[in-house]
Amino acid sequence: METITKKLQRIQQNIPDYVSLVAVSKTKPNEAIIEAYEAGQRIFGENKVQELTQKYNDLPKDIEWHFIGHLQTNKVKYIAPFVSLVHTVDSIKLLKTIDKEAAKNKRIVSCLLQFFIADEESKFGLNMKEADTLLQSEEYRKLQHVRITGVMGMATFTSDEQKITREFQTLKRNFDELKKRYFSDNDSFKEISMGMSNDYLLAIAQGSTMIRIGSTIFGEREYH
Ligand SMILES: *Cc1c(COP(=O)(O)O)cnc(C)c1O
């Protein structure tokens, strides 16, 4: 079987330099993460607060941890001390909570706005109208401890590549619109987090700057 190191190298060879690779380590043991770390990987993604916090405590402190799951406001406090990027902001309420907890830790936490671009796949994510409302709100403008650095989305789970491509185009268009309307003089608004094991090449072709890959690096996940 191909090692984690080899799999990481193969992906890195297939993607442009400007695309960051988030190694999605959810459900995988620390040993697997260490192997990837020793191969040079520094960005890891997790989707459960408790699992992420445990791994943060156990593993090297120069790992950049990304949160990629649905985030409940009452759990933000556990990850606010260390999380590097929250990919899944889908409400002003969540953003305000992240801001409050980041302030307690004297940090500024980077966040992506999650968009709903798929069919019924995920219940989570904003549409453009909701994103406009959020970004125009007085509440948003007051926040000092969060920084919105881009957008995130998940395509429908399907083998229809044209459909996936259309969904990624929608996310890219949303990013371009938001950049024009709200972030034209803000260089930190630059990330488009799209693309997973099965669709990352399609995502990069549509402008992805950040891909989130789990099973292609670590093997299929087993849920118990
Ligand atoms: C699990 C997960 C991934 C990685 O999925 P793979 O198909 O294993 O690459 C990417 N993004 C999110 C939001 C996930 O939950």
Explain how this protein is built.
This protein is an alpha/beta fold and 224 residues long. It has a single domain, classed as Alanine racemase (TIM Barrel, Alpha-Beta Barrel), CATH 3.20.20. It is built from 10 helices and 8 strands. The chain has helices at residues 4-14, 30-38, 49-58, 76-79, 92-104, 128-136, 138-142, 161-182, 200-205, 215-218; strands at residues 20-24, 43-46, 64-67, 85-89, 109-115, 146-153, 191-193, 210-213. An 8-stranded parallel beta sheet has the order 7-6-5-4-3-2-1-8. Helix 4 (76-79) links the parallel strand 3 (64-67) and strand 4 (85-89). The longest helix has 22 residues, at 161-182. Pyridoxal-5'-phosphate binds at residues 24, 26, 47, 68, 154, 196-198, 212-216.
| Secondary-structure element order, N to C | HEHEHEHEHEHHEHEHEH
Please state the second-level CATH architecture. Answer: Alpha-Beta Barrel
Please mark out the parts with pLDDT under 50 across 5 or more consecutive residues, or reply none. none
Largest sheet: 8 strands, parallel
Total strand count, please?
8
- Describe the strand arrangement of the main beta sheet, using strand numbers: 7-6-5-4-3-2-1-8
CATH homologous superfamily descriptor: Alanine racemase
Shape: globular
Beta-strand share of residues: 15-25%
Topology-level CATH name: TIM Barrel
Question: Ends: how far apart?
Answer: 23 Å
Q: What would you call the structural class?
A: alpha/beta
Q: What Rg do the Cα atoms give? A: 17 Å
Number of domains: 1
Helix content: 40-55%
